[in-house]
Amino acid sequence: MLNKVSLTIAIVFILGATAFAQSVDDYWNEVTRTVMEGDFEGYAALYHEDAVLVSESSGNSYPISQALEGWKQGFEDTRAGKMKASVEFRFSQRLHGESTAHDTGIFKYSALSNGTEWNTSYIRFQGLLVKKGGKWLMMMEYQMDQAGIEEWEALD
Predict the structure, then answer these.
(1) Residues 6+ apart with CB under 8 A from 67
(2) Is the whole-model pTM more than 0.70?
(3) CATH architecture of structural domain 2-154
């Protein structure tokens, strides 16, 4: 009898953890969609109102609203067809709870403007998300240093 109860608890725990991971995966899929479509409003809505961007390349941290101002033109150009953009994510560590999630990995951002060749960057990152009103929101995005294509491929 005890074994059946333990098995049932384990199954519920595994299914619950999978549901949390899928919800966070939906978040990352929505980030990808908004970047590809140039949906600035949709992208901005994926961040908590008090979110922070930490950027090693600039040696600074600042409110996400400031980062969004800098990124807005790229979204508008993508939406207008003046450029193409894409982002993909691969993860090296994922720590998910019912209302918080912390993902570590590399994102691959590619942009093509004026018909020139694609410019691609691989950036190590960490994302801290919170679930508010049933929706995952980025609370802190930490863009670390550049990664190489070999590291990216190793996370496949």
Answers:
(1) 53
(2) yes
(3) Roll (3.10)
